[in-house]
## 1
Amino acid sequence: MNDLQVQQTPSSRQMRLVIVGHVDHGKSTLVGRLLSDTGSLPEGKIDFVKDICERQGKVFEFAFLLDALEEEQDQGITIDTSQIFFKTQKRHYVIIDAPGHKEFLKNMVTGAADAESALLLIDAYEGVQEQSRRHGYILKLLGLTQVAVVINKMDLVDYDPEVYFRIKTEYSEFLKSLGVEAHEFIPVSAKKGVNIAQRAEEMPWYKGPTILEMLDRFEESAPPSHLPFRFPVQDVYKFDERRIIAGRVEAGRMKVGDSLVFSPSNKKGVVKSIEAWSVPEAPVEASSSQSIGFCLTEQIFVERGEVATRLDEVPIVSTTFDANLFWMGKRHLEKGRTYTLKLTTQEVPCEVVEFKRVIDASTLETLPNQDFIAKNDVAELTLKTRKPVVFDLFGQSPATGRFVMVDEYDVCGGGIIITYVPSNKEDKLRDEVRWRDHNWTKSNIKPEERAYRNGHRAALILITGESGAGKAELARKLEEQLFNLNFQSYLLDRRNVRLGVSADLAKADSPPTEETVRRFGEVTRLFLDAGHVVISTSNAFYQNEDADIRLLAQPCPVVEVLLSDDPPPGEYDMVLSLIEAGKAGESAKKICQYLKDKKILIGHNYSI
Amino acid sequence: MDHLDELEHQSIFILREAYKNFKNLAMLWSIGKDSTVLVWLARKAFFGHCPIPLVHIDTSYKIPEMIEYRDKVAKEWNLNLVVGQNKKALDEGMNHTMGRMVCCEALKTQGLATVMAEKGYTGLILGIRRDEEGTRAKERYFSPRDKNFEWNFKDQPPELWDQFKTTFAEGTHIRIHPILHWTELNVWEYILREKIPIIDLYFANKEGKRYRSLGCAPCTTPIDSKASTVEEIVEELKYHTTTSERSGRAQDQEDTYAMQKLRARGYM
C-alpha cells in the first residue's frame, strides 16, 4: 500500500453491511473471499485454517475463515451472526454474516436490524428459494432499503446470462411487490473470486459493478436530525446537586432555552443546560443519536418512558394501533395472552386485539382464517396496551415507530406501527386532556413547592370493591388518619359532586353517565392541582369510568386499593381482603405505609 | 458527529440501560486498555461519577505494575473496587503448568463465579470486543448466562433496535458488553482523543517490546514494536499490523477451539 492510498482512508468509521440469503447460497464463502481478496486477514490465518482442515481431513473452504465455533464447522452452516472487519481504499466495513437457515431467523434479524446496507445472495443453480423471499421481506420490515442482489455460483451454470436474467426478473418482481428496488443484480462466483474484487472475464455481458465497487457506492446512513425532536427519557440522575434527565435523542435536534413537553404526562419545562463530563466546552445543542443529559429551569417529576418533544410537534399517545410484525418465538403469538411491549424506553403489557392478515413470509401468501402467528411468519395486526404509549408512525419517525414484543423473558417479535385511527372514546378524552393541560394557566406556586409545604405530593386514592365491602368506612378512616398526620387529605364523595356540580344532569342516585364522570374527574383534577391527597370510592361495577378518571387526574399518581377476597385479573396497587377491610383503622395504616413507600407521603421539610 | 462520537454515544446508551435495568450490577476491570476505556465511558454516561462497583479478578500472577496502576487509578477516580480471588485453588497450588485452560478456568472463571455468588450480582459489564477473536464476534450486547455460568451460543436471544434482554430467570445472569462494536484501533483513537491514562505496559520499552494485550505474566508475551506513545500505537495499528491482537496470549493457542471452550463455560 503506498502513501497516497493510506491518506485515502482517514477515518476508521465502519459501514455496517449485512449479507443475507437462503442457506448454502454462499454467504460465508463470499465473506471469506472478500477478506482474502482485500488482504484483510491477519498473517498466517489462511495457513492456520488450512492446517486444521488437513488435520481434520476436510477440503479447505473460504467459509472456514469465519466459522469460529466448532459446531458451525461440523454442520457446515452458520448458526449465529458473526461480525467481520475489512477495509477497501474508500473505507472500513463491518460485515455481518447472517445465517440462512430458517431455524436461525432471529440471528439473521439481529444482524440485519443494525445494518446500513445489505447484500442478498441467490444461488444461480438453485434459483430463488424460501429464505431468499423471507429475508427480502424482513429487510423491508426493518426499514433497510439499500440492497443489492448477488447471484452467486455462476460457475455452476457456465456463466450463462440467461440464468442471470431469469433470476433477476423473478426476484425484481418479488421485491417490487414489497415496494423495494434493488440497487443492482451482480453475477459472481465467490468460490472462484469472480466479480468480487476483480472484474470477470467470464461474463463480458455484465457491465455493472463488482461487489467491492458496489459496496463503495453505498451511502452511510445519516442520523435523522431533520425530523421533529424526539427524546425518550432513559433515566433521571441525581448523583450531585444536578437533577439530570438522561436519554438519547432519537430524532431531530434541541438547544439550550428550548421549551419542551413530556408525553404522556403533559408536563412542560425549559432546557437550562446540557450536561457533559470531560468535554472541551459545555454543549449548547444536541442532535439525533446523541446520548445526552439536560437540566430544566424548574424541577419537575418525570420518569423513564416519557418522551420529550416540542409543543407544536407532539407524538401520538394511545392504547391501540395497527402494526406489521414478524414473530421469532418458539410459542405462537396468540390472542388472549399478555406480552410486554418495549417501545423506546417504555415497557407496558399488551395483547393482540385482531389479526388482520397473517402472511407466510416465504411466499407472501395470506394464510386464511389463522388466529395466531407461527415462528418465522409475519402479520398485520391490532395491538392494545394496558397503559397508553407514546409513539409515531414508522413512516414518519422510524425510531419512535417501532417496537419489540417480549414473551416471558425473551424478545420474540419486532414490529413497525403503520396506522393509528383515534376512534375510541378514550383517545378523544386524552386529546381533550392534552389540550386542557397545554392551556392551563399556571400558578406562581409550583407543585413541588406545595409538596414541600404539605409534606406530600398530590395523589388520588381510589378505593374500589363490591357494594358492602366497606369502602366508605375505610375512606373516612384514611382521610382522618392523614389529616391527623398534618397532611392535606380530602374525601371527595361522588354523590356530593352529583348533588351540586352535576345537578343539572341527573338525580344523585342514578348510574353515572359519561358527562357526570367527566365532571367528577375535572373536580378531582382541581383538588389535585391544589396539592391534596384526594380519596374517592367506586363500585367495581364502574371500571371503565375509573379509566377516564385516571386519565383526567394525570399527571398525578393514582393509587387503586381493591377490597376483595377474589380479585379479578388486572393490576392493582394494593388488594385487601374483606376481613382486613373490616378493620378500617388498621387498613388505613397499611395504605399510609404504602404511600410512604411510594414517596407520595414524603414527610414535612423534605427537600426535593 | 464523527465515528468516535457514534461509538461513544452507543456505548453510553448501553451503560445507562444496564444501570437502569439491573439492581445488582458490577463492571469487570482487568486493568487493560479496553476495560479502562469502559470505566471512562461510565464516567461520561453518569456525568463524572462511576456508580457501578468495579470487580478485578486477581489471579496473583498478574504483571506487578498492573496492581500498582489499579490502586492508583481507583483512588484518583474515586472508584468502588472489589477484588476477587480463588484462594482455595491458589492454596492448592494452581498455576499455568497444570494446563493453561485448566488454570484460566480455575483462577479467572471460578474466581469470577465466586465473587458473583458472594455479592449476588445479576448483571456484569465487560469490555470485550467483536474484533478480538471469533467467538466474541458472535456475542450480543446483553448476553445471558445460565445457572451453571454457561453461555449457550447456539440459542442466543435476538437483539434489535437497541431493545435488549433485561429480564431473566432466577439464578441466571446477564453479561453486558458496551464496547462490543469497537475495534482495537477505535479504542486507541479514543484513548488519544480523550487523553485517558493507560498503563505503561502497552508502550514500547528500550528493548523494543510492548504488550498488545494484557494477561497473567507467565502466559502473556510482549510483541516487537517501536510504538512508545498513543499516537505511535494508532499509527502502527493503522498501517503496519498484520498479526492478531491476542497473538501474545498463550491460552488462545492451547487448542483450536480454546476460546470457544473457555467462553462457553463462563470465561470473559
## 2
Amino acid sequence: MCRPGDAGSLSGVITIDGLVKRRGAKEILSGVGFEARPGRVTGFLGPNGAGKSSTLRILLGLDRAQAGTALIDGVPFAALPDPVRTVGAVLDGSGAHRSRTGRAHLRWVARAGGLPLSRVDEVLELVGLADAGAKRVGGYSLGMGRRLALATALLGDPSVLVLDEPINGLDPEGIRFVRTFLRERARAGRTVLLSSHLMGELAETVDDVVVIDHGRIVAQGSLAEVTGAHRNLEEAFFALVSR
Amino acid sequence: MIRAELSKLLTLPATWVTLGWTLVLNTLLTLVIAVGDAPIAYSQAGFVVFGALAACSEYTGGQIRTTLTAMPRRVPQLAAKHAALAVVTIPAALVVVLSGRVITMAALGSWAVPWEAAEATAYVTLVTALSAAVGVLVRHTLAAVALLLGYLLVVAPLIRAADLATLAIGTPVVLAAALLAHRRRDA
C-alpha cells in the first residue's frame, strides 16, 4: 500500500482512473480519470447530470463502479486505515438525521472515528454553529445544514476534503466563508476536491480544473490552461460543453 | 463502532418514544387481559417499530452517507448496529415482559415461571433484530413495519410459525441477506 521512502503516497493524493458506471442501460461515467493533488484546490466542473456526484460517490466508496479505480493515497476508500482522519466529505444536505441535535450528530461521528469528543465543540465553533449545537437538525436552515456537513467533514482534521456542490444553498456570506476556508486548507498543504456547476463562483477559488460532460472528461489542467484563449473560465466551460 | 451505533440509537428521540409507548401499551393490555405474556403478542408491534426505525433512520437526511464515510467497512458497521440494538433491546424487553408479570402477579397472586419470562424476552429481542434486518432490506420504515406486522400477526399464526424456534432460525437468515445487500448495493 505505502511504499517506504515515497512520502508522496501518504499526503492525500486522489487518483481516479477509467471509471465506468452504468445504471440500467444508461452509461453515466465513460472512463473518467483525473488526479487531485495536495496543496491545491481542484474544481470538478460540469453541467447538472454530467457525472460529478457519481464520480465523487464512487471515490467515497458509496457507489460501485463497473470498471476503473478511485484511490486515495493509493488505496480505495473502504481500505483506508483511518478514514475519518484521512478524508472529510461534504455531500448534498446535512448528512444528519433531523431529530438529532447537531452536537449529538457530531458526537457519534467522533466516536466512529475514535476522535476525542472535544473536537465536536471545536468544529462547531469553526463553522459558526457554536450556538446551534443543542438545536435539532430539523430546525436548521439550509445554510446551517451545509455548515453542519462541513463541521462533520472537519472532525478528523483530514488531509483530503471532498465537497459536492459546497456553495449550493449558501448565502453570500456563507459562500465567502467556504471559499476562504478552502483556500486556507490548500495553503496548509491539504487536498481539496470540489464539484460545482457554478463556474463564475469558482474561478477565484480553484487552482486546477477538471471539466466533465456526459460522463467524459473534456478538459483538465491548471486554471490558466483550461481557460486558455477564452476570456474567463465560464466562457471556456461553455465552449467545452456545448455541442 | 458499537459505541458510535449506540450513541446514534440513544440520541434518536424516536427510540425513547417507541419504547415508552410499548411499555404503556403492554401495561394497558395486561390490565385488560391480565394473563402473563399474552399481551406480548400485540405489544411486540412496538419492538417491530423500534427495530425498523433503528435501521431506516439511516435513510433520513442522508445520514447513511455520513455513516458509510465514517465507517466504510459495511459488514462490521451493520454488525455493530445490530449489536448496539441488542444492548438497548434486551433490557427494554426485560422491563416490558417483567412489568406484565408483576401486574399479573398482583392481580392473580400467582408467580409465573421465570423461564417463560426469559423466553418472552428472547422472542421480543429476536423480533427487534428481524425488524431491523427487514428495515435494512426495504429502507422504508412504514413498508418494513407493514411487512413485519403482516407476517407476525397474520401469516405466522396461520402457518403455526409464531414461535421462538422459527424466529431463532429465520432471523439469522434474514440478517445474512441484509448484510449481503448492504455490502453490495449503492448507498
